[in-house]
Structure formats: structure tokens, C-alpha cells
Amino acid sequence: MSEEIVFDCLHAEIVNYCLDNNKKHDLGILEYIGFTTGYRLIERLTREVPRFKDELETMKFICTDFWTLIYKKQVDNLRTNNNGMYVVQDKAFRFLTRISPGTQQLEHAPKFVAFTCGLVRGALSNLGINSTVTAEVQSIPACKFHIEVNRN
Amino acid sequence: MSRQATRLDAKKVNSEFLTLTYGALVTQMLRDFENVEDVNKQLERIGYNMGMRLIEDFLARTSAPRCLEMRETADRIQQAFRIYLNIQPTISNWSAASDEFSLIFDSNPLTEFVELPADLTNLRYSAILSGCIRGALEMVQLEVQCWFVQDQLKGDNVTELRVKFVRRLEEVIPAGED
């Protein structure tokens, strides 16, 4: 779809902008932009959706409907330890598919996943789940997101 | 688990996703820069960079031939807006010399959820659009100026983007090559 390329370009520019202006190479701002986007987007997405009955159901929504809409494919795997840890695996993550595959460009991977970490954290946050989201890239374009629910 | 699969309108979600992300970026820039003019410049630059890339996608997608005059260029720009933002601006207000025209937008997806606070009247929120046009055209050897004449965010009825032909860029051959 044509709008995808527009967003891909915008995302790339946001990454550039955030890293250019922060001499410290801080990914926090990038994550924060994702957070506010996710926070607002999920509110509009779930307007017509019945209330989720528990955390697992919320997670499933994020990893199926939400993920498919944003990343144009389903996640390849969702695992949980049933104690607040969730691991989402995407074997061809949208923002990494335009980078040479393999491990050569691995050092550049963090900046292309930070936005999404924030996006997921923001979406969950607005659904009442306080979490920490980190990403792990071992071989481009595969990516694993670790979602840790903070309960207290 | 027999949750009813919710049918969400992918097209609408995509457009809102873009709108909200752009909004988050503008908000962040306003935090980063004290001067609103600097934000305008940054947004324009981001648009410029995006335009330089989008033109390639546009050419590949439409296999459009070379434009011979500005009226053709205007049609292509209109087409690009339809492809990439799903909006169709009207082309009007041609100058007598046919080197300057306006794109009139009845609606602007970028500003769908936006209201400008009173102290930000200098902000050109959609500066990314003018940047995009400039960047894209520069890649096909057209230098143009592009600016906002009217903006719905500032209370006008429509958003009007003016495009003015400046000159044709000559291909520069790198030094040492004939």
C-alpha cells in the first residue's frame, strides 16, 4: 500500500532527527515519540472494542490486531511465562526489512526498534498496563520484543 | 477464547497512525527548539528529505514521463497527493505566465486532530508538505519555491499551498568526467 512508504520515510527521518539533535545518541526521545503515538492511537483503535477481560487478552490484542495493522504482518510468536513477561517475535520486522540482512549492520538496529518499544509501551499504558518494553535484535530483520509488566 | 475479531479499517488506521506520529514529532520539536521558526525549518527539511525519496517511488509506481510544462507538473503533484495521502487538492490560481499555481486542500489529514494554541500562530504545522514538494521536484531538476498562503489551522476556509517555478537545474557532471 502506498501510505506505507510515506510512513517508512517519516520514521527514517524521525530517527535521524532524534539522533542528530542529541549528541549523546539518546534513544529516549525516539522511544517517547513512539510512546505518545501509541498512547493516542490505541485510544482511537479500541473505541468500539469491548473491554478486555484480563492482561493476556490485552496482550493478544496488541500482538494480533494492533501489530497487524501497524506492521502489516502477524507476529511470528508470542510467549509468556504467565508471570508478567511476554516475548513477541517478529521474523521480518517492518523497520528492519530495508537494511541488509544478517549481523553486519547490527550496531544500527537499536535506533530502528526504539520507536516501536515506545509505541507498544504507550498502547499498553493507555489500556491500564504499566510495562517496560525492550527489544533484542540478533539477526536483521528478525526482532524480539520483551514486554515486562510492572505490577505494583 | 472466542473473542470476536474486531474489524478495524486499515486505511483509516494507517492515516491516523501517520497523523499521530507526525503530531508527536512536532510536539517534540517544539520542546527541543525555543524558536518556532527553527521548528518550521526542521519540518521543512524533513519534508525535503522525504520528497527526495518519495519521488523515486512515485516514478517507479506511475512510470510517468518527463513533464514539459508546469501544468503537467501540477497534475503529477496532484496525483502524488492522491497516492500517498489519499487526498486530492484542487489546482487553481495560475499566474499569467503559467509558472505559479496553488494547490487547494479542503482537508488535510496531517492536521486532523490539531488545534494551534494562541502562542504558536507562527508555526507552519504542515511545513513537511511544502518541503516534500520541493525535495521531490529538485530530484527531477526543477527548482521551485513552495509556501503556505492559507491554512485551515489558522482559521482560513481552505489550506492553500503556492508553488512557484524558479528554474531548471542543469545536470552537473562531476569534475574530471566528460
UniProtKB/TrEMBL annotation, chain A:
Per UniProt, subcellular location reads as: Endoplasmic reticulum; Golgi apparatus, cis-Golgi network
The alphabetized UniProt keywords are: Endoplasmic reticulum, Golgi apparatus, Neurogenesis
Q: Pfam families, alphabetically?
A: TRAPP (PF04051)
Of the GO CC terms on this record, one is: trans-Golgi network
Give the main localization category: endoplasmic reticulum
What the entry lists under Gene3D superfamilies is as follows: Trafficking protein particle complex subunit 3 (3.30.1380.20)
List, in alphabetical order, the GO biological process terms annotated in this UniProt record. endoplasmic reticulum to Golgi vesicle-mediated transport; nervous system development
* Endoplasmic reticulum keyword on record: yes
Similarity comment: family membership: Belongs to the TRAPP small subunits family. BET3 subfamily.
Q: What does this protein do?
A: Component of a transport protein particle (TRAPP) complex that may function in specific stages of inter-organelle traffic. Specifically involved in the early development of neural circuitry, likely by controlling the frequency and amplitude of intracellular calcium transients implicated in the regulation of neuron differentiation and survival.
Per its record, how is this protein called by name?
Answer: Trafficking protein particle complex subunit 6B
Provide the species name. Answer: Drosophila willistoni (Fruit fly)
Lineage, uppermost ranks? Eukaryota, Metazoa, Ecdysozoa, Arthropoda, Hexapoda
Gene symbol of the encoding locus: Dwil\GK11311
TrEMBL record, chain B:
Please give the name of this protein: Trafficking protein particle complex subunit
Q: Which keywords does UniProt give here? A: Endoplasmic reticulum, ER-Golgi transport, Golgi apparatus, Transport
**What family does this chain come from, according to its entry?**
Belongs to the TRAPP small subunits family. BET3 subfamily.
Complex and partners: Homodimer.
What is its subcellular localisation? Endoplasmic reticulum; Golgi apparatus, cis-Golgi network
- Which GO terms are recorded in the biological process aspect for this UniProt protein? Golgi vesicle transport; protein secretion
What's in the GO CC field? Answer: endoplasmic reticulum; TRAPPII protein complex; TRAPPIII protein complex
List, alphabetically, the InterPro entries matched. Answer: Bet3, NO_sig/Golgi_transp_ligand-bd, TRAPP_component
Functionally, this protein is described as follows: May play a role in vesicular transport from endoplasmic reticulum to Golgi.
Query: What domain of life?
Result: Eukaryota
Q: Identify the gene encoding this protein.
A: Dwil\GK16614
Q: What is its main location?
A: endoplasmic reticulum
Q: Which SUPFAM superfamilies does UniProt cross-reference here?
A: Ligand-binding domain in the NO signalling and Golgi transport
* Organism expressing this protein natively: Drosophila willistoni (Fruit fly)
